[in-house]
Amino acid sequence: MIPEKLARLLPWAEPLATGLAALWLGWIGAGHAAAGNVFALLPLLGAAAAGTWAWASARRLRLRLRQAGLGPGLVQIEEGRVIYFGPETGGVAALDLLSAILVVADAEGGVARWVLEDERGGRLEIPGGALRAERLPDLFGALPGFAPDAVLRALATARAEGRAAPVWRRPATGPRIVRG
């Protein structure tokens, strides 16, 4: 029984630890500031950094599927490519060729499926519960204009409307000028 409860708390370890560190450093910094100590700035800066880290890790945790790793298949991330090995399907999508990312929500509001479309017309569907699929939002952060909050908004839209909702589209670059 204890290991089951511990397993439910384990994903919250990073946000809790960094949040507690932020509170502790803030308390130390406030004590030094009240005493007029010039070194109060160091723990206060550490508290700000730890608080930002706690906020970012909590936001990442919200994007993870509740049963990550229990779905079919395996996701591998390698040199700017997403590789999905599934029991019936699979494929590869290069980040620099992606034109759109869509998400399909499950009944609980988590990621049921990621849909990656490339500029050549290719489409790769990855179950949200596939092993290592929880790493995809971090990888997509390298795309121009990608916002993690857009995933949460798209999940809400996808759940309400019962269809795939766009998370990201490649920004239009306009006509290319060739100089010769």
What does this structure look like?
- With 180 residues, this protein is α+β, with helices and mostly antiparallel strands.
- The protein has two domains: 2-63; 74-169, PH-domain like, CATH 2.30.29.
- 40% of the residues lie in helices and 23% in strands.
- It has helices at 2-9, 13-34, 41-63, 136-140, 148-161, and strands spanning 74-78, 81-85, 90-94, 98-105, 111-118, 123-127, 165-169.
- The strands form two sheets. The protein has a four-stranded antiparallel β-sheet with strand order 6-5-4-7, covered by helices on one side. Strands 1-2-3 form a three-stranded antiparallel β-sheet, with no helix packed on it.
- Helix 3 (41-63) packs parallel to helix 5.
- The radius of gyration is 21 Å and the shape is elongated.
Structure summary:
This protein has 5 helices and 7 strands. The strands form 2 sheets. A 4-stranded antiparallel beta sheet has the order 6-5-4-7, covered by helices on one side. The chain has a 3-stranded antiparallel beta sheet with strand order 1-2-3, with no helix packed on it.
User: Looking across the biggest beta sheet, what order are the strands in?
Assistant: 6-5-4-7
Helix percent band = 40-55%
CATH topology name of the largest domain: PH-domain like
Shape: elongated
Transmembrane segments: 12-30, 36-56
Keywords: Membrane, Transmembrane, Transmembrane helix
